[in-house]
User: Which sequence fits this backbone?
């Protein structure tokens, strides 16, 4: 009899242990399923924003020195935050192909699920970014895994700030080229060559034009004949056209057409340029990253990788065509 009792007790103990283990596993699964990491993070951020808004409301609602309109605005903000729905937020990206052709399938960036403080995001990103995050997402500049909803996989290989981006991409041409390739893939409507996206710097902002003086400092030793020829001709092309009668008689819009080809770093949308004359960077593109790499003893070969991309002989066809000067007919008798 005692033997059977022991077996029953052993059986009950085993069943109890299995039940407890299953309960624990299901509890962990349930918590992860119904209270995932992203929800916990959203709650924490919302609670923090509510606390700050309530503190401000307490000040502005004071009958002695407060502002009723400001207090009402904060009251509405607090109500909105308390009723805010926890949800996955994502930016739909264009991808390598057109969705209308069912190419590449949907791609998305879910970073905004956790980074829900849009006010802070706007503070950390300058206005008029050439790669706005609400269109291109975050991965295009920050790397990481924007499709993940947990911090560890999402932040793997992530470049958190501009300093980290510069550290990674100003030492490695491959890292910068990888970013350029990513930008090109996110613009499937037209064929974009790496030459076009090479104007973006390591932080996703446009590269800085360093100017002829910096270029000549090194290249006068390696290519003296070329530098001397251009210094006496192309570098001074703006000075020459400014003396032409049509330039002097023409209005500002007319002159902008001249600047497009006779200056360096011309921005058509703003009508501004970086440097007078057709300088080195007019054909080779802005030299911010290239010059940084050339100044490092161990990164010269990295700089050479960029030259294979940033220079395109087709660039000449943008200016060296007869039609460019057709606008001058009204000022001359032919």
Assistant:
């Amino acid at each position: 009899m005692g033997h059977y009792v022991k077996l029953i007790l052993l059986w009950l103990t085993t069943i109890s242990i299995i039940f407890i283990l299953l309960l624990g596993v299901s509890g962990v699964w349930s918590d992860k399923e119904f209270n995932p990491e992203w929800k916990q993070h959203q709650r924490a951020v919302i609670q923090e924003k509510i606390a700050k808004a309530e503190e401000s409301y307490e000040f502005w609602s004071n009958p002695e020195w407060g502002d009723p309109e400001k207090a009402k605005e904060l009251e509405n903000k607090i109500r909105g935050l308390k009723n805010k729905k926890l949800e996955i937020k994502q930016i739909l990206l264009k991808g390598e192909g057109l969705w209308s052709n069912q190419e590449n399938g949907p791609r998305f960036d879910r970073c905004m699920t956790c980074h829900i403080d849009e006010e802070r995001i706007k503070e950390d990103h300058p206005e008029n970014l050439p790669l706005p995050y609400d269109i291109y997402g975050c991965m295009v500049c920050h790397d990481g895994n924007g499709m993940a909803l947990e911090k560890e996989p999402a932040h793997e290989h992530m470049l958190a700030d501009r300093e980290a981006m510069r550290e990674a991409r100003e030492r490695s041409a491959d890292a910068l080229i990888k970013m350029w390739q990513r930008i090109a893939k996110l613009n499937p409507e037209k064929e974009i060559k790496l030459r076009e996206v090479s104007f973006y710097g390591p932080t996703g902002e446009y590269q800085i034009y360093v100017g002829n003086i910096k270029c000549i400092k090194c290249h006068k030793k390696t290519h003296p004949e070329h530098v001397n020829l251009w210094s006496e001709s192309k570098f001074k092309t703006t000075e020459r056209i400014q003396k032409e009668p049509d330039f002097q008689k023409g209005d500002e819009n007319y002159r902008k057409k001249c600047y497009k080809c006779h200056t360096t770093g011309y921005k058509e949308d703003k009508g501004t340029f970086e440097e007078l004359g057709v300088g080195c960077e007019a054909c080779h593109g802005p030299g911010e990253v290239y010059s940084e790499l050339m100044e490092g003893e161990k990164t010269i070969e990295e700089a050479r990788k960029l030259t294979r991309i940033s220079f395109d002989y087709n660039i000449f066809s943008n200016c060296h065509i007869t039609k460019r000067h057709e606008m001058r007919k009204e000022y001359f008798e032919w």
